[in-house]
């Protein structure tokens, strides 16, 4: 089954990092967050990826073009240019790298993949900046059981602000804002049938607006509720939090 990852956004709120690289290539623990996302799917047996490229897509292309060499021992014949690879540790992935426009919106990027996906049956899609411990097997089973065109993984937004109880100038209580106190939001990790292409119009189509709104109005969009871990990397604060979790050895999305 194809797994589409949207990799074309500008990542303006991470401009300190994204001036020189696309957002999916911002590193967590020495690896691009894109790699971490792909490992989530690999854990459930999925290794056939299609990356929808845009802003600085050449950086992502270069990364995967050189991936096998970087993960292997090399013997280079300087006279002939021949290279022998030894002890490779690269993942068994097939990675399609498709330019989907420098300014295309999320729905437009997906629409540009129509010819590559419409005859492939069910496919999955997510964003190139969010990790989770979502159960992909359970997500797919949920999608197959309801028989609709689309499934979105609904998640609780992570806590961002401390909750203060103040008496005069004295802080009586400080606690992280509880995650369960928030509503459900779009967490990515979609499952789609090819019929969703009928809801996409052009490069300017924003997947999260008219297409998903129309799918919902037509009774074709279902929500898989994931109450576990989910985190998007929107800001430097998010990146640093993900770095800390990875460094601790207990990153929730890893296992």
The profile of the biggest β sheet is: 8 strands, mixed
Total individual domains: 1
What's the CATH superfamily, by name?
Spore Coat Polysaccharide Biosynthesis Protein SpsA, Chain A
Mean pLDDT: 89
Task: Kindly describe this structure.
- There is one protein chain.
- The protein is α/β, with parallel strands linked by helices.
- The protein has a single domain (2-247), classed as Spore Coat Polysaccharide Biosynthesis Protein SpsA, Chain A (Alpha-Beta Complex).
- Helices cover 27% and strands 28% of the residues.
- It has nine helices and 16 strands.
- The chain has helices at 15-18, 33-42, 57-65, 67-70, 106-111, 114-117, 136-146, 210-217, 236-247; strands at residues 2-7, 27-28, 31-32, 48-53, 73-76, 83-86, 94-99, 123-127, 130-132, 150-155, 162-167, 170-176, 185-186, 190-192, 221-226, 230-232.
- The strands form five sheets. Strands 1, 4, 7, 8, 10, 13, 14 and 15 form an eight-stranded mixed beta sheet that branches. A two-stranded antiparallel sheet has the order 2-3. Strands 5-6 form a two-stranded antiparallel sheet.
- Strand 2 (27-28) and strand 3 (31-32) form a beta hairpin.
- The radius of gyration is 20 Å and the shape is globular.
- The two termini are 22 Å apart.
- The mean pLDDT is 89.
């Amino acid at each position: 089954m194809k797994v589409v990852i949207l990799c074309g956004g500008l990542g303006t709120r991470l401009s300190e990092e994204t001036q020189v690289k696309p957002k999916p290539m911002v590193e967590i623990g020495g690896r691009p967050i894109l790699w971490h996302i792909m490992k989530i799917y690999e854990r459930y047996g999925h290794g056939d990826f299609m990356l929808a490229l845009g802003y600085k897509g050449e950086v992502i292309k270069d990364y995967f073009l050189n991936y096998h060499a970087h993960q292997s021992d090399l013997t280079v014949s300087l006279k002939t240019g021949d290279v022998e690879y030894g002890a490779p540790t690269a993942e068994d992935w097939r990675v399609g790298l498709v330019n989907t426009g420098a300014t295309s919106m999320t729905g437009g990027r997906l629409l540009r993949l129509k010819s590559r996906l419409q005859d492939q049956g069910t496919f999955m899609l997510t964003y190139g900046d969010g990790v989770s411990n979502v159960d992909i097997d359970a997500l797919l089973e949920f999608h197959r059981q309801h028989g609709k065109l689309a499934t979105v993984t609904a998640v609780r937004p992570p806590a961002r602000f401390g909750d203060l109880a103040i008496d005069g100038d004295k802080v009586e209580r400080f606690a992280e804002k509880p995650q369960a106190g928030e509503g459900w939001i779009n967490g990515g990790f979609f499952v789609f049938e090819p019929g969703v292409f009928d809801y996409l119009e052009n490069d300017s189509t924003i997947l999260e607006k008219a297409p998903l709104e129309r799918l919902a109005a037509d009774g074709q969009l279902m929500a898989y509720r994931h109450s576990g871990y989910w985190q998007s990397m929107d800001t430097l604060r998010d990146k640093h939090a993900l770095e800390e979790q990875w460094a601790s050895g207990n990153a929730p999305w890893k296992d």
